[in-house]
Amino acid sequence: MIILGISALYHDAAAALVVDGEIIAAAQEERFTRVKHDLNMPVNAMLYCLKEGNLQDKKIDKVVFYDNPFLILDRFLKNVCALGQNSWDLINRSFNTMFSKKIWIQNAISSVIGDKMKEQKIYIAEHHISHAASAFYPSPFDQAVIVTVDGVGEWATTTVGLGVNNKIEILKQINYPHSLGMLYSAFTFFCGFKVNSGEYKFMGLAPYGQPVYYEKIKQNIIDIKPDGSYRLNLEYFDYQNGRTMIGPAFEKLFDGPRREFESPISKREMDIAASVQKVLEEVLLLMAKDASKTAGSLVKNLVLAGGVALNCVANGKIYKEKIFERVWIQPAAGDAGGALGSALYLSHHVFGEHCKKTGGDLQKGSYLGPSYNESEIRDFLENSGYPYHKYKDIKERNYNIASALNDGKVIGLFQGRMEFGPRALGNRSIIGDARSPQMQSRMNLKIKYRESFRPFAPSVLREKVNEYFELDEASPYMLLVANVNQDRRIPFDIDEQLKKGTNMLPIVNKARSDIPAVTHVDYSARIQTVSDKDNAPYHGLLKYFEDMTGCAVIVNTSFNVRGEPIVCSPKEAYNCFMRTDMDILVLENFLLYKEEQPEFKENENWRDKYELD
Amino acid sequence: MNLTDDKDAQLLYDIACKLQKKYEHLFSPIDNVLQSYYIARDRCKHKEIEELYFDTPVDLRKYLEKLWESEEDREMKKFIPVILAAAFKRRPVKKDGNEKSAKAEDSQLPEFVYNF
After folding, report:
1. What is the pTM of this model?
2. Is B10 on the interface with A (CB under 8 A)?
């Protein structure tokens, strides 16, 4: 059965194709439109999926949308009723989207691919079922506890369920407006980062601070029960009124107005980030412990999805506590993953298609997007007149890349199929030498053009991960955080450093281990393990680098600049290469050196194109 | 987006004001007595998945009546006429190719508001 899953109209629109229960393709719309977190109908992603599935002469059996517009309408109207005379802001905010877009989702889909659909009716899946399915079906497990946590779906914001073979059941949930995702976003907003995109930065800020607001948050903002269920004190929030995230009481509680976007970060924001992170971890750990009890001792696996499951620091704590023997997290845990989950739910749960578990996961390394073959890349380079070197095989290519990394060069690496989910996993990545103490600030300021405090992630050979980090599990999707091994650390006291001032540049330039570029200020690292099975070309490159230098770790960051979606095509990769301080661009077996390229001219200033995230 | 002059939006607002008494305690506050804030799934009326196809106001009415079929939701049915009017007045016109971008509309939203 050919099933197309779609997510849209909230944030991170995406499409995913599942054929006979197997994941064939998945991509986020932002990668094609170049609009970060694009929420519009994912026309390009849908068409890409059809192309990847070679469906030119076939019809799609079923189309499924990842949430239920009628239940959203129910929530919207009841929220409006609850506010009564104060509801005008909420009506103003949502009325047109609700009645011109959400309720007409079938028409919007049909207008793009109607001629490819066997029937004009579509399926609408519940938002958290889509998340749950995205976590359970691609996981390696026949049985698992499923926890989903995000901002809000229709009503649910948190669910606990169970997956067994082909079936998924949600057992209990927490409903809007009580939401861990909203709580985290509210603090993200208060600390001057953008909601729905700045949460990841906010998490990265936490290790600079102390959790001095932890008790204050627990006493005033959130009530947590021993089973991890929670409610928020709504007096501090304003989102339920359709206005902003937080109310005046929130600002009063945290010593003044929120930080303005792009203004200097103070110790207060660092401490708030540390405090909220601690609260979030506490809730998630209690929830995982309770879910384990609910499921019984026979279920030894946990799967996670929903935007909050992208908090890899919390994931690392859950893993470390060993509440479950094994943990698997959907790499596209946010709403994009809902497209995949809804398609898998329809395939396996509704139509009973066999879920072929083989020991490993079924996510295919999350390399589910477009790829470009040699002739396409050659044509692009020839037609554009860009000088290049073509290597005859992967060995020669890897030797050149490894040598350049060893010389401190920064390289744009473009190969294979594009990743599905927010992390670049070696196919649309910028890579550098993790041993360089200056690499973090160089990459942040001259290549990514982003805030200096932000850490970078390591890619490490799977077979060597425990030689560098306190982790002996695979983490192929960069969703687990663990510390650098003790014997690699260099004494470093972040509090002492911050006494000299909150300028983070000199702080990040101080080496904290023998792989400083990927060691955060608390010695943590957001790890991607690379195995030959996950990504043979990337594994081969890492192996070459290790043979040459004795180091099995490199820096891996997404191939984009701040505010830009990760590059999709060779042209976008080239543009990003030329706009930044990168030294070398690798397009499959083609290598381009910056100094050999012609002067780069653009009609518009690219900085105006990408809104800061 | 300002809907001050939109008749449907105004009607929706008027109904909501009349129903406020019933729903003003919709959002449960913190409760020190409760042992858990979890809601058992069987107490939720959510459907995991369902088919969707409507083309006429009559079709849409059926979905809405089903949505609010329980006694508890009886009064929500008062919204049905205004929903039908609002939805069908805003029915997207079929076009070839790409849907018109929602960006222009959305860009008028406050920058930091959670988008839902």
Report:
1. 0.95
2. no
